[in-house]
Design brief:
The complex is a heterodimer of chains A (237) and B (507). By secondary structure, chain A is α/β, with parallel strands linked by helices. Chain A has helices spanning 47-58, 77-82, 91-99, 103-115, 131-144, 161-174, 185-191, 214-218; strands at residues 7-18, 21-32, 36-40, 62-65, 149-153, 177-181, 194-199, 202-208. The two termini of chain A are 16 Å apart. Chain B has helices spanning 3-7, 21-39, 52-64, 74-103, 107-118, 121-132, 136-160, 165-169, 176-209, 218-227, 231-246, 248-251, 257-268, 276-286, 290-294, 297-306, 311-335, 346-361, 364-375, 379-403, 414-447, 456-465, 469-493. Chain B is globular and about 85 Å long. The chains are: A alpha/beta (237), B mainly alpha (507). The interface between A and B is medium-sized, with 26 and 21 residues.
């Protein structure tokens, strides 16, 4: 394991709760600088809870792309992206920005939108966009935050495989460190340094991606138990 | 044990036994109806006019042949009616919106809003009449103050129900104002606007009613014409009012609003010269019992002893509230299928919708006034008016909701469709709506007193007339307390089943 690299955050025997239920008891993990982590596991395994805890602990250093996007359908694409840095402007500037976009942010958001294939949509209300377009707006908002680290809860869940690759590349180009929850196991192996796998309230996989196979990852999903039962024994106990 | 023992079916349930939603609500309803039936003998329901039918015929003739030429400056009254409604609503928003933002956090604000809501627009008008005279200031304050309380509550509810995801997605450290205008207001905007529109419609009705206390809106001419038996003129004025309500979607368009607001401002004048000293005297002295101001406790007890016995008035108010609510439920149950696409043919539906529109657009006070002329002064005209107006309103909303339902079993006959497909889905919402309306019904009960029905409102009106402001104000406080208590009670009794018709615009 790369102990030489410095650790950004370390959880040692922490109970993660969702509401008043302990979802992940006694969790141990380390998040290291310049490491891209794919977070896998069946739905309900606690991925969002874990990301929520990381987001709280990392505070201002993490850009955040939530699962339901958290977009405001009535506002234009530009304003939704701008919301990523709402805290950096005064309330008055934010109000004026609703009346007429501020020149600096408008330019920066336009650049991002071009990169994400949203050109020409900046003034369209998000409610009128397709699912894939909304997903890209959510990613644009997270990128616009310009933070050291990227936290994403299934940011490429509702786009086609080619686009997913392109979006991950964009995120990668701007963030050396990231934790991204995924469904696509292949992407986890090909585009990430490390895989965290959750199942039944435990972190059953915490290993470098190059040491893992698809069969190992299949073990995370209960429906695949029949074929690859032995794969579950791998990884950290 | 033989096989036959196993086959014995579970015992057949008794009458309305069981814990399913439908049966529980049926028991709930029957209890309510039974209570009303038991209490009916205590209500004075006598018909006092000798020949109601001849009077009714004359009124119908007036409505059928309106005398358009007999109206005196109807356009001016119409303009003032609209201007008062518009500016009253605006005032309510300006006062109520900031309160809505603090509503969830401050018990004091919630209590204050409950208090101003509990007093009907007409009573506020009577109160301000003493200070501002027969002027637009009285009319505007009479609308703006109770509406501020209503807006605060409803806007707070709407803002509470917006999805939280956009708010949670914001980066840390965003200021309260920025969070509000980006992640809260846009999400609530459509519902806020819809509710404001609905409240404006209520304000139009209330603005007409202000004529009953002497302000020169449409209601003033309407009341005079009715009271003096000039039914053809009254008919013309009523038609004018229905036209105003029916054409609201056209003249009340969003783009025309700024023009109407500015134009309305010119119609509201002349403004009264307010004497600050007089105003202060009214607020600090006139409305309080003199003994209380002097700290004379024995005198205060004497003062209280001199107030006429309120028990019958409170009893009548509560009784009329209960009878009105139960009546509204029965009317709604009987009328909603008439306007619903699942029953009848296009002709019956058109007639049904027309009837519901007519009944719910006519202000209750107007209906009560009409029945009063017909049946004489007892609780009966007030009961009929409350039941018909509120029943038609609920029926309209239920029918609209039923239209959106697609029955799962096609080809069932009409009674089957009603009993098995629609009513089970609609009834919980309908009952919830009735409990919301109960507060409104009680508030209206009190103002029907102004027509001579012996409720609390009758004594309030009388004491204002005798310039006994301290007694009138005390009675207003009693009325408000009663309304708040009944509202709290109805919130407790309201069935907790999923209220499918849960839109504040419908309350």
């Amino acid at each position: 394991m790369g102990e030489s690299r410095d650790t950004l955050l370390s959880l040692a025997g922490v109970d993660l709760v969702h509401g008043d239920r302990v979802v992940l008891p006694g969790l141990h993990l380390d998040l290291r600088r310049d490491e891209r982590v794919a977070l896998l596991g069946p739905s309900g395994a606690g991925k969002s809870t874990l990301l929520g805890v990381l987001r709280r602990r990392l505070g201002d250093s993490a850009a955040w792309c939530p699962q339901q996007h958290g977009l405001v359908p009535q506002l234009a694409v530009y304003h939704n992206v701008y919301m990523g840095r709402l805290a950096e402007h005064s309330a008055l500037a934010n109000l004026w920005n609703l009346v007429r976009p501020l020149p600096g942010p408008w330019r920066q958001v336009a650049e991002l939108c071009d990169a994400l294939g949203l050109e020409g949509l900046m003034r369209r209300p998000v409610g009128q966009l397709s699912g894939g377009q909304r997903q890209r707006v959510a990613i644009a908002r997270a990128l616009y935050q310009q933070r050291e680290l990227f936290l994403g809860d299934e940011p490429v869940a509702s786009v086609d495989p080619h686009q997913a690759l392109r979006l991950l590349a964009l995120i990668e180009a701007r963030h050396a460190t990231s934790v991204i929850a995924l469904h696509q196991r292949e992407l986890a192996l090909s585009h990430f340094d490390r895989v965290w796998g959750l199942r039944d309230g435990r972190l059953v996989i915490d290993a470098p991606a190059r040491e893992l196979t698809l069969a190992d990852l299949d073990g995370l999903y209960p429906d695949a138990d029949g074929q690859t039962g032995e794969a579950r024994s791998r990884g950290r106990p | 044990m033989t096989l036959a023992d196993h086959r014995t079916p579970a015992p057949r349930p008794g009458w309305l036994a069981g814990q399913s939603t439908g049966v529980r609500l049926a028991r709930h309803t029957l209890t309510l109806v039974a209570l009303a039936v038991v209490l009916v003998p205590f209500a004075d329901l006598a018909v006092l006019t000798r020949d109601p039918w001849a009077e009714l015929a004359r009124m119908a003739k007036g409505l059928a042949w309106p005398a358009w030429g007999a109206m005196e400056s109807p356009l001016e009254a119409l303009g003032l009616t609209v201007a008062v409604a518009l500016w009253g609503t605006l005032g309510g928003i300006v006062l109520g919106f900031p309160l809505a933002l603090l509503f969830a956090r401050s018990r004091l604000i919630r209590a204050g809003c409950a208090f101003v809501r509990a007093i009907h627009e007409l009573f506020w008008a009577l109160l301000f009449l003493q200070v501002f005279g027969l002027s637009a200031a009285t009319a505007l304050m009479a609308l703006a103050i109770p509406y501020a309380g209503i807006f605060a509550k409803v806007f707070a509810e709407i803002l509470e129900q917006i999805p939280g995801a956009p708010r949670d997605a914001l980066p840390p450290g965003v200021s309260r104002l920025s969070r509000f205008v980006y992640a809260e207001l846009p999400l609530a905007w459509t519902r806020l606007a819809a509710y404001t529109r609905y409240r404006f419609e209520c304000a139009l009705r209330a603005s007409v009613l202000l004529g009953f206390v002497g302000l020169p809106t449409l209601g003033f001419q309407l009341e005079t014409a009715f009271r003096e038996g000039r039914y053809h003129e009254a008919g013309a004025l009523l038609w004018l009012f229905y036209l105003l309500i029916a054409s609201l979607p056209w003249w009340g368009h969003r783009r025309l609003m700024p023009l109407l607001v500015l134009g309305g401002a010119f119609l509201l004048g002349p403004w009264p010269a307010v004497d600050g000293g007089l105003l202060w005297r009214f607020v600090s002295q006139d409305i309080w019992p003199p003994a209380l101001l002097e700290g004379d406790w024995r005198g205060l007890i004497d003062w209280l002893a001199r107030i006429p016995d309120l028990a019958p008035a409170i009893g009548n108010t509560l009784l009329l509230g209960l009878l009105g609510s139960v009546g509204a439920l029965l009317v709604a149950l009987a009328l909603w299928p008439l306007a619903c696409r699942h029953f009848g043919n296009p002709v019956t539906r058109l007639v049904g919708r027309g009837l519901l529109l007519f009944l719910r657009s006519t202000p209750e006070l107007m209906l009560a006034f009409f029945f009063l002329l017909l049946l004489g002064p007892s609780l009966l005209p007030a009961w009929l008016a409350l039941a018909l107006h509120n029943g038609a309103l609920i029926a309209f909303l239920v029918a609209r909701h039923a239209d959106a339902i697609t029955p799962g079993m096609p080809g069932v006959n009409a009674p089957g469709r009603l009993a098995y497909e629609l009513l089970p889905r609609l009834y919980p919402g309908m009952l919830a709506l009735l409990y919301y309306r109960a507060e409104v019904i009680l508030r209206e009960t009190a103002i029907l007193g102004m027509l001579g029905v012996a409720t609390l409102g009758y004594y309030i009106d009388a004491n204002f007339e005798y310039l006994l402001f301290d007694v009138a104000f005390f009675l207003l406080l009693v009325t408000a307390a009663l309304n708040i208590a009944v509202d709290a009670l109805s919130r407790r009794l309201r069935p907790r089943e999923t209220a499918i018709i849960d839109d504040p615009c419908q309350r």
